[in-house]
Design goal:
The strands form nine sheets. The protein has a five-stranded mixed β-sheet. Helix 8 crosses helix 9 and helix 9 packs antiparallel against helix 10. It has 854 residues and is α+β, with helices and mostly antiparallel strands. The chain is built from 21 helices and 29 strands. It is 32% helix and 16% strand.
Length: 854
């Protein structure tokens, strides 16, 4: 009997041993089979996660971020221990001890799942396994993937330190709200750096990996709190925090940016604008879109925040004044249903949901509002971000009496007398606080609207090309189209300085006499008859007067004389066109150009003819801090010296190409100073030497002014996106010069300005600026003009008259000497409230559209 029993149990034992042997053999075979062709874990050593690219302004302040995955990589030694402990407790409490996988953890997970009927499922994957899944394997749910995960985890635990594995995990893990890694998530949920997180906040982040969408702090607050408290309990049980800390922290409420407990991190940044968006566009072309959005680039932008704000204000003032002068009310076109206006909470929520492309929130002083009530005269409004106090906020009747309402059918109503003539209950509008000029005290709320007319403004350093300000339209939020770099418009007479510079390079002098008289050019499209703005003529006149008074006919004759090839070669050399078409009308600015390209030509006049290219970026560094792009290639040997001789500053040597002859550049400066002093740009009013040129195209579809001091060049353009006339009284001198003035007055305070440097190789000679005749050195009077003439340039031919091969004609309505377009002209008030002179009689197209008029 005993032998039978022993034999029976011996057989069972043999079967068990045999079964275990074959089971082990099978498992070994399976693991051996799946261990083949596994990805190498060595690529983890070259891990470069997708990280945020950040843009800083010239003062070092963060102004924008771009990312496909919002991640900030943080080395493990800079991640606080409380954060590490929270994630280890939540995801893998035996992380520091196991060999990549945790058999005890797997067994406990199975046991608890069975015990709770599947309600409490503990994660069975270790942190190491999750790293394998995220970096080397797919996320599909399969036995095959799980086996490969275990094999790789075991290998990696032997090859890579635990701290490095945890570093990979904490920087890669997705934690919701487009936040990848603990550093980005800390800013997203708490607007805090990792170093400031409390245990309950670290536990909140550690609650997210399980399922971020199921633990949303707004929709699933209680579920998130329960999970957070579970993590805190595990931290206590694992000895990372004390029992007292655990009991205190678990009672704290769930706080987050999403619940309004903290200000969003994005609120600390200025609104995205044309400048940073253009950096995105340019660097995406240069480095590739993937590298820009995920390469962790650090970009130092050239933008001066004060100058950028001033550029926006100056352009917005001009555009709004012009639009308001049209007297048409269009509003925003957005209406909030009356059933959402019942309570303050309701209308505030509805107003907050209105997108910024309808109600731009990036215009200084402007706020979205909704009409809540209309009385017989006034309108009560609710304003975003403004408290409701007393009787509320009101738009009085007198604030609407400037406008006529534009109906949906395109018809205009009669001029408004009361608020209800323009507004209806539920209308979303933009408002601004009107304040006293004397003491800044509040007067009343006033209606605003985004203008239909658009424009662009740009300013840059003439020596380095560093763009200090770029405003590509009225509001970036209402229109992201950057008219500085993307809009191609006719420059009109803003192009004429390039024609005159080509002439000076061809042997002309500022006092070379050119005929100002009618021209007819027979073209395949018909007879082209370019005209002057006033339809009057100077006859034989010095080139200086031709540019100062923006004489089209003189410009055409100069172009014909020197040849369009000469002008086009210079324009292409300056980077204005790529290429320039050789049509005579293009001498008057008929060919479209971007402001970004045109402004650099003026900068080269201002700096003495040196090559300069506009740049929005000083330097770009990669994720490791290595400089991969630097704009300024000038050499400064003295900058590394410990001390410099008394009274001396560092010497910076420029290796820039000399594009324009220095004397030609200075002569152009002198000519354009005359434009500002006596010509079409005489509205410019600065306390430093300044030069520039206006531009107005046919029918005033585009108006320009580009001007410069010894340090800064700035350009303004105004026009409708779909070109149409700005009106009979719209000129570069009346619309753009005020913008230039408003900006440059502040720019000069910061950057100063001096007399322009006179280059060697020339001498001064007095001329009669009306006739072009030389006069004695001691001559005085308004007619005397000192010109800088090249040494060795013959003066024998200066009395000759350039006609371009065209006849002059007879019985022409000529100006008397000293007379200008102001004769027979009209005085108008500009958008800035100043007076300007414009000619009464306008030139017309002729048979072919010419470029510039005035």
């Amino acid at each position: 009997m005993i032998r039978f029993i022993l034999s029976f149990f011996g057989s069972i034992f043999s079967w068990i041993v045999t079964a275990l042997f074959f089971a082990a053999l099978t498992i070994g075979a399976v693991f051996w089979m799946y261990s083949r062709d596994l990805p190498s874990h060595e690529q983890l050593a070259q891990y470069q996660p997708k990280t945020i690219s950040r843009i800083y302004n010239s003062e070092g302040r963060l102004i924008d971020e771009f990312a496909t995955e919002r991640r900030i990589f943080v080395p493990i030694d800079e991640i606080p221990k409380v954060v590490q402990d929270a994630f280890v407790s939540a995801e893998d409490k035996n992380f520091w001890y196991h060999a990549g996988y945790d058999p005890v953890g797997i067994a406990l997970a199975v046991f608890e799942a069975v015990k709770t009927g599947g309600h409490d499922i503990r994660g069975a994957s270790t942190i190491t396994q999750q790293v394998m899944k995220n970096f080397l394997l797919s996320s599909d749910r399969s036995v095959e993937r799980k086996i490969k995960e275990l094999i790789l985890a075991a290998r990696v635990s032997k090859a890579i330190p635990k701290k490095r594995i945890l570093e990979l995990y904490l920087n890669e893990i997705f934690l919701g709200q487009n936040s990848y890694g603990v550093a980005a998530a800390s800013l997203t949920y708490f607007n805090k750096p990792l170093s400031e997180l409390k245990p309950y906040e670290a536990a909140t982040l550690a609650s997210m990996p399980k399922a971020p969408s199921n633990y949303n702090p707004v929709r699933n607050m209680q579920r998130l709190k329960d999970r957070r408290n579970y993590v805190l309990h595990e931290m206590w049980q694992n000895g990372y925090i004390s029992e007292e800390t655990y009991k205190t922290e678990r009672e704290l409420p769930v706080k987050s940016v999403q619940n309004g407990d903290y200000a969003p991190f994005r609120d600390q940044l200025p609104p995205r604008d044309y400048f940073t968006d253009e950096i995105r566009r340019q660097l995406s072309r240069s480095f590739g879109q993937d590298e820009f959005f995920s390469g962790g680039l650090t970009v130092r932008a050239t933008v001066d925040p004060d100058m950028q704000a001033q550029a926006a204000r100056a352009l917005q003032h001009a555009l709004e004044e012009y639009d308001r002068g049209r007297g048409v009310w269009r509003g925003t076109g957005v209406t909030i249903p009356k059933d959402k206006l019942g309570t303050e909470a309701d209308w505030r929520a509805a107003l907050a949901d209105v997108h910024s492309d309808k109600v731009p929130r990036d215009v200084e002083g402007w706020m979205p509002a909704v009409v809540l009530e209309l009385t017989s005269e006034d309108a009560r409004i609710g304003i975003e971000g403004i408290k409701e106090e007393g009787k509320g906020n009101w738009i009085p009747a007198k604030d609407v009496q400037w406008a006529r309402k534009l109906n949906k059918d395109g018809k205009l109503e009669r001029k408004a007398r009361v608020a209800s003539d323009l507004l209806e209950v539920g209308d979303v509008v933009m408002v601004r606080a009107m304040t006293s000029d004397s003491d800044g005290s509040f007067i009343r709320w006033t209606l605003r609207q985004v203008p239909q007319v658009e424009g662009a403004f740009m300013a840059m350093d003439v020596h380095t090309g560093r763009v200090l300000a770029m405003q590509g339209g009225f509001s970036y939020q209402s229109s992201v189209f950057n008219r500085t770099t993307q809009a191609e418009r006719q420059p009109g007479s803003n192009f004429k300085p390039i024609v005159y510079a080509a002439a000076l390079d061809s042997g002309f002098s500022p006092e070379t006499v050119v005929v100002d008289a009618p021209i007819e050019v027979n073209t395949p499209q018909g007879m082209w008859r370019p005209k002057n703005a006033s339809n009057r003529y100077f006859g034989p006149t010095p080139m200086r007067t031709g540019l100062e008074q923006s004489r089209n006919l003189m410009t055409v004759r100069i172009a014909q004389e020197i040849g369009m090839d000469t002008i086009a070669d210079l324009a292409e050399k300056l980077g204005v066109y790529h290429p320039m078409k050789r049509f005579l009308a293009n001498a008057l600015g008929a060919q479209e150009v971007t402001q970004f390209n045109l402004i650099s030509a003026y900068a080269m006049f201002a700096n003495g003819g040196k090559r300069v290219e506009p740049t929005l970026v000083d330097r770009v560094q990669d994720r490791f801090g290595r400089t991969i792009y630097r704009h300024d290639q000038r050499v400064c040997d003295d900058c590394s010296a410990q001390t410099l001789p008394e009274g001396e500053g560092p010497r910076i040597e420029s290796n820039a190409e000399q594009v324009i002859d220095p004397i030609t550049a200075y002569q152009m400066i002198s000519l354009m100073k005359g434009v500002v002093q006596r010509g079409s740009g005489r509205g410019v009013n600065l306390n430093v030497p300044v030069a520039g040129k206006t531009g107005t195209t046919n029918d005033s579809k585009d108006v320009w002014f580009t001007g410069f001091t010894s340090n800064i060049v700035a350009s303004c353009y105004i026009g409708y996106d779909n070109p149409r006339s700005l009106g009979a009284h719209a000129f570069g001198g009346t619309l753009c010069v005020p913008v230039f003035n408003e900006f440059m007055k502040e720019a000069v305070k910061k950057y100063g300005g001096t007399e322009f440097t006179v280059p060697p190789g020339g001498h001064w000679q007095n001329f009669n600026r009306f006739t072009g005749e030389m006069v004695s050195a001691d001559a005085t009077g308004d007619y005397v003009q000192a010109e800088y003439i090249r040494d060795g340039q013959s003066t024998a031919g200066m009395g000759l008259v350039v006609d371009g091969g065209f006849g002059m004609g007879s019985n022409l309505p000529l100006f008397a000497p000293g007379q200008t377009d102001e004769s027979g002209s009209t005085s108008v008030t500009t958008s800035s409230g100043k007076t300007a002179i414009i000619p009464k009689q306008r030139a017309n197209f002729g048979t072919i559209s010419a470029g510039g008029l005035y």
